[in-house]
Amino acid sequence: MQILTPHVYWAQRHGEILLRVELSDTKNLEINLHDKTMQFRAQGHGAKGDNEYKFSLEFLEAIRPEIEHKSTQRQVDIKIKKQEERWWDRLTLQEKKPLFLAPDFDRWLDESDAEMELQAKEEERINKICVESRVRKDHYLGLKKGYLFMYNLVQFLGFSWIFVNMTVRLFILGQDSFYDTFHTTADMMYFCQMLAVLEVINPLLSLVKTGVFPAMIQLAGRNVILFVIFGSLEEMQSKPVVFFVFYLWSTIEVFRYPFYMLACMGTEWKLLTWLRYSLWIPLYPLGVLAEAVAVIQSLPIFDETHLLSLPLPAVLGGSLSFSYTLQIYLVIMFLGLFINFRHLYKQRKRRYRSSKRKVH
């Protein structure tokens, strides 16, 4: 029987090597490790049909003698521990890789991603310990979860009402619905945003794990738009930009709050999780852009009305227009967009890696 070489795919983590051998229905499997070398031999069905396949690898650095392998109907998965936990520049000692060897892109991570995965594992381990500790000691855990569930439910119902109301009016009235959005939905939006103060209080009371500062920034930013720009300027209330700001806000929240509701019950819907961590990628920048348009449109109105202007001594010219404060706010808004987008993207990657580990 002819001896052939199978296709082998590899990936690495800081502490281990992951190999996938494209060989099905394996028999007489032999894997030997010694210092830096690995020798593989098995009979099975590969690229050249049913034959005996073998290969050997000389690794870049030393490996441990322990090995984990699992044969399935389609492949052989092998996990090898590194002698020292560190990142290798390549897999083999020789710079030119063997022709049968290729990267396993299904499990491939670069060094920074692998470090992030290590941090996520450590955070998950610490969180698990903290949760188990709280479960044993916190006699009010059920009450806290009930409160958080009700808060998220009320917010979900409020933003759903706004979303459905605006959507129905858009289909019936078309573009005419842009001009009376504020007068038809402002009361509910006021209610939801005032209730959102609890999103700053909850982390202060350690009821949720999210940071206080990000919640405070989002709450303050929305309240500037809602109460200061839309609420205090009648000229802004009939502008189409109100529709786009409210619609983007409500679209984000009708997926965010149900996700938190299920989290309170220890349940997860994969589709909802995907929507929660994917829709914000286009919606968050669009929301900031709509808010920026609202701020820019309000600048000449604040200049003309002198509303919220800061009185100055007569020598300095009378008063300082509030529009200057809003111009500074615009710069901060876009800096915050970059920082928050980067933070949320990393959070999304950690979430999906955690989900993949649970599946495997």
Largest sheet: 5 strands, mixed
Determine the oligomeric state from the structure. single chain
Q: What gross morphology would you assign?
A: elongated
- The tally of helices reads 10
What is the β-strand count? Answer: 11
Please report the distance between the alpha carbons of the first and last residues. Answer: 36 Å
Order of helices and strands: EEEEEEEEEHHHHHHHHHEEH
Question: How are the strands of the biggest sheet laid out side by side?
Answer: 7-8-3-2-9
What fraction of the residues are assigned to beta strands by DSSP? Answer: 15-25%
The helix content is 55-70%
The chain-level structural class is alpha+beta
Integer-rounded radius of gyration: 29 Å
Q: Unreliable runs, pLDDT <50, ≥5 residues?
A: 356-360
Walk me through what this model shows.
This protein has 360 residues and is an alpha+beta fold. It contains ten helices and eleven strands. It has helices at residues 111-137, 141-173, 181-195, 198-204, 212-230, 234-237, 241-264, 270-278, 280-305, 322-359, and strands at residues 3-4, 8-12, 16-21, 24-34, 37-46, 49-58, 63-71, 76-82, 101-103, 310-311, 319-320.
